[in-house]
Specification:
Largest sheet: 6 strands, mixed
Radius of gyration: 31 Å
Number of domains: 4
Strand content: over 45%
Shape: globular
Helix content: under 10%
Length: about 425
């Protein structure tokens, strides 16, 4: 009898199981618009050192494609943005971008107004043979009505530029030791702001060239990092005629030796050797901007020292050039200058690397390419300074063998000082 009871109970449980799993019942979602939005897929990487992560890297003949899985899916809107502009709405993105680097952002918003987002950069590479322009330094800061340059590759194919919707047809193509670049006049009616640049060839094809920033602010590009006490100090840049004052070490300077749109000359204060904060104000009481360390700042550090500046510029050096090419060596400090130096003096060679070059190195030699005593070839991976102690043997060699050279490959001599 007990066996029969167990059998009946098992049959009853089984029938209840099949009833609960009836195919006639629809599954239901418990998530609502009040839940926090989440991006489930793809997983976006985190940035490093304060930099946004690289979201994607593609060639310019491929589309940027991505599909997002979000929750709550039934109560969310997905918005895709490039450079701050909305380009698409929906969970799937398929868009073509010209060559360049873009700020990418995807925003998920619920019906209740709750949001989450992911952002980073998208890099679109040019194809081989494309006209292309890569940023080198501060040349991407431009002034309406002024002259500007773009460095790059295959720029001889470019017949016009488009900046901020304005076509620029009067271009000057230059190919020399400094590189391959275009000179152009910035439209005088271009407003302040950031604009993408398009390179247009003879057939009307358009190629991306990243961005430029138009400014009407006073912008110091060179000369602000170092000064000698109580001596002539030259600062160069853009809209320099707008500078009304500079403040350094707590001392404000309002009187200048000379001032133009591109240069400011003043007598530096008589400060002790050390580092000081430098700021400035324009005639409209806005902050003076400085280009320093690859970014734009309103306050920079200037080093005061008793060093004598022997050279300041941006002279490219590479032994790939033929004899007679001025950029095969750096020979811009005459041996007569070295004749006045004392043994034990320190020569500081400030350099910046050319990123496109490989196997970069710097050597200091006599005019006959004899390496100076006590020196060696220095491999260069980043901008820096090479210091050479000028022994009496080195000074004698410079006089005996027709002067002093910096040789090697893949760098620019930016400043040479003596202390």
């Amino acid at each position: 009898m007990k066996k029969l009871q167990y059998i009946l109970m098992a049959i009853l449980a089984l029938s209840l199981f099949f009833t609960s799993c009836s195919e006639d019942e629809e599954p239901f979602e418990t998530i609502t618009e009040n839940d926090d939005p989440r991006i489930l897929d793809p997983i976006f990487s985190d940035g490093q050192n304060g930099q946004l992560p690289l979201i994607a890297e593609i060639d310019r003949d491929a589309n940027l494609t991505m599909e997002l899985v979000v929750t709550p899916s039934a109560f969310s809107t997905v918005t895709w943005m490039i450079d701050g502009y909305e380009v698409h709405e929906g969970t799937e993105l398929d868009i073509n971008l010209k060559a360049g680097t873009y700020h990418f952002k995807v925003l998920v918003t619920t019906d209740a107004g709750k949001t989450t987002h992911r952002e980073g950069t998208v890099r679109v590479n040019p194809l081989e043979g494309d006209p292309w322009s890569a940023e080198q330094a501060f040349e991407r800061i431009i002034v309406p009505g002024g002259t500007a340059v773009l460095y790059g590759n295959n720029l001889n194919l470019v017949k016009s530029l488009i900046v901020g919707g304005k076509t620029i047809g009067d271009l000057n193509y230059v190919d020399d030791a400094e590189g391959n670049y275009l000179e152009y006049t910035v439209p005088v009616d271009l407003g302040v702001g950031q604009y993408r640049v398009l390179l247009v060839d003879e057939a009307g094809n358009e190629y991306g060239a990243n961005t430029v920033t138009a400014t009407q602010s006073a912008f110091v590009t060179e000369g602000a990092s170092r000064a000698n006490p109580n001596s002539e100090w030259r600062l160069s840049g853009l809209n320099m005629d707008q500078i009304a004052s500079l403040t350094i070490g707590g001392e404000t300077i309002t009187s200048f030796v000379d001032q133009s749109a591109t240069e400011l000359v003043l007598t530096s204060p008589d400060l002790e050797a050390g580092t000081y904060s430098l700021t400035g104000k324009t005639s409209s009481n806005s902050d003076v901007e400085f280009y320093s360390g690859g970014s734009v700042k309103t306050e920079v550090t200037v080093t005061f020292s008793s060093e004598t500046v022997l050279f300041e510029g941006h002279h490219y050096v590479s032994w790939i050039f033929e004899d007679g090419n001025p950029n095969k060596t750096f020979n811009l400090i005459g041996k007569d200058v070295f004749a006045t130096m004392s043994a034990g003096s320190i020569l500081s060679i400030h350099y910046s690397i050319e990123p496109a070059d490989a196997d970069r190195q710097l050597q200091t030699t006599s005019g006959w390419w004899t390496m100076l005593p006590g020196t060696e070839a220095v491999m260069l991976n980043e901008d820096g300074v090479v210091e050479v102690v000028l022994t009496q043997e080195a000074l004698d060699l410079i006089q005996a063998q027709d002067g002093f050279l910096c040789v090697g490959h893949g760098y620019y001599v930016d400043r040479v000082t003596l202390k």
